[in-house]
Automatic annotation (TrEMBL):
UniProt keyword terms in alphabetical order: Metal-binding, Oxidoreductase
UniProt cross-references to Pfam families, sorted A to Z: Cu-oxidase_2, Cu-oxidase_3
Protein name: Multicopper oxidase family protein
PANTHER family for this protein: BILIRUBIN OXIDASE, CUPREDOXIN SUPERFAMILY PROTEIN
Gene3D superfamilies cross-referenced by the UniProt entry: Cupredoxins - blue copper proteins (2.60.40.420)
Domain Plastocyanin-like, first and last residues per copy: 79-193, 359-480
Similarity comment: Belongs to the multicopper oxidase family.
Bilayer-spanning residue ranges: none
The keyword Metal-binding is assigned to this record: yes
Lineage: Bacteria, Bacillati, Actinomycetota, Actinomycetes, Kitasatosporales
PROSITE patterns: MULTICOPPER_OXIDASE2
Organism, scientific name: Streptomyces monticola
Length: 482
């Protein structure tokens, strides 16, 4: 259950409007993509949306334009499109290849992927592969942008183990609105460790991006920095959809694609959910629980066994995390059990062996705080010209991260590395965060100790709050690995 302290922290997560942004975003012209709706517009909000009318789509798998030379090459275009998010209405969205959310890239460890990104929008963008170990030139640094009308090639060596990654815009001061309007998609990396397991696969392995939104009367996105009225819940780009399933096991790659919202997901009947993985791939052993918690940007790999239910069952996936009225944010999607099916899949008692942690070579502390209209990392607003942490190449460091805000929740994301959570508030981490992570939640006053090893690439990378409204306001810093 969500604790009272968590609820108070989440309820305090209101920020400020565009007045907090720098002149860079203030200089947006009336032709920007697309014009923001009036702040706080309720419009076609969750209270008026007919539930479970639209089918939840499975994002299409992107086909490579070439596989020559052992490299999978893809092409994407960032452009505006329209999508039926609310029943009977068309919403203007920002997309990769016209898809909302973006197409899924399925990759293999050890086989490089190259993606040519063309920016057909009128604003600069920067594509970040969240959770990936890549060179600085392909990391999607907030200031390393793709200008409108130009193209950029991103190279992903895929030298890391399997993981449910995702890609999204990271252009500083614009990342919040760009991701909110649609610039994100799944990147699922597979390896032999994962492939040899008899987990649900093929059509029974489904990515689900969950997020919130607010709409104007005519069904357009309403965007304002820190808006707490994003109370319409979306799954794979549809408001309160249904998803037809067979009476067998399914693997769902859950992503919290919200800008700020936390999710605590449960089945409507309180049935078990088996978590098998997190941000950086499979857990060592499956974890059976009645709910799954995800802060913005976090992922959970889960298995739900629908063979417990007779054909004809309608089972709602609920969210019990605030803020917002439970009758609006409390339902996400509905699973409709409409057929039987053979099920050769299993959930092994042991999923993987996590590598032992090396002896730490250094320790450092990081403090996250917010005093609207600004947000801070170690009492500093992000400055791309400043290096905040010098890290020795090959070092394995222990970082103690504290949310010093008395009322605002935050979370902490590091580029380049997957880390291990060592402690939460001086105690063992939650069982669901014992695997490899790249994003970790911190409620007001909480402290998390984590360990990361920096032995992949040299160069500069950022770390920041992945509540994107917060990072857009300055809660971000740069580490230089040399």
């Amino acid at each position: 259950m969500f604790t009272r302290r968590e609820a108070l922290g989440a309820a305090g997560s209101v920020l400020v409007t565009g007045a907090a942004l720098t002149p860079l975003i203030a200089a947006r012209s009336a032709a920007s993509d697309p014009p923001a709706a009036a702040p706080g517009a309720a419009g076609a909000g969750a209270a008026t949306v007919e539930r479970f009318r639209l089918a939840m789509p499975v994002p299409p798998v992107l086909a490579p334009v070439s596989t020559a030379g052992g490299v999978d090459r893809y092409a994407m275009t960032m452009r505006t499109a329209t999508a039926e998010i609310l029943p009977g209405l068309r919403t203007e969205v920002l997309t990769y290849n016209g898809q909302f959310p973006g197409p899924t890239v399925r990759a293999r460890s050890g086989r490089p992927v190259v993606i040519r990104q063309h920016n057909a929008l009128t604003m600069p963008t920067s594509v970040h592969l969240h959770g990936a170990s890549v060179a600085p030139s392909s990391d999607g640094d907030p200031m390393d942008t793709v200008a409108a009308g130009t193209s950029r090639t991103y190279r992903y060596p895929n030298r890391q183990p399997h993981a449910s990654l995702w890609y999204h815009d990271h252009a500083h001061h614009m990342e919040s609105e760009h991701v909110y309007r649609g610039l994100s998609g799944a990147y699922l990396l597979r390896d032999r460790t994962e492939a040899r397991l008899p987990l649900p696969a093929g059509a029974y392995d489904v990515p689900i991006a969950i997020r919130d939104a607010a709409f104007t009367e005519d069904g357009q996105f309403s965007y304002a920095m820190g808006d707490r009225n994003r109370t319409t819940m979306l799954a794979n780009g549809k408001a309160y959809p249904y998803f037809r399933v067979a009476a067998r096991k399914y693997r769902f790659r859950l992503l919290n694609a919200s800008n700020m919202r936390m999710l605590r997901l449960r089945l409507g009947d309180g049935g078990p959910i088996v978590q098998i993985g997190t941000d950086g791939g499979l857990l060592a052993r499956p974890l059976t629980a009645t709910d799954v918690f995800l802060s913005a940007g976090e992922r959970a790999d889960v298995v739900i066994d629908f063979s417990r239910y007779p054909v004809g069952t309608e089972l709602v996936l609920e969210n019990t995390a605030p803020p917002g009225p439970a009758d609006l944010v409390g339902q996400v999607l509905r699973f409709d059990v409409d057929r039987t099916a053979d099920d050769p899949s299993e959930i092994p008692a042991v999923l993987r062996t996590l590598p032992p942690l090396p002896e730490p070579t250094a320790e450092r502390s990081v403090s996250m705080n917010m005093k609207p209209p600004q947000a801070f990392m170690d009492d500093k607003v992000y400055d791309p010209a400043r290096v905040d942490a010098h890290v020795r190449y090959g070092a394995s460091e222990v970082w103690t991260v504290t949310n010093a805000s008395p009322e605002f929740p935050h979370n902490f994301h590091m580029h380049l590395v997957q880390f291990r959570v060592l402690e939460r508030n001086g105690k063992d981490p939650n069982p669901s965060e014992t695997g490899l992570k790249d994003t970790v939640n911190l409620m007001p006053g909480e402290t998390v100790k984590l360990q990361a090893t920096f032995d992949a690439y040299r160069g500069s990378y950022v770390y920041h709050c992945h509540m994107l409204d917060h990072s857009a306001m300055g809660m971000m810093a740069t580490m230089k690995i040399a």
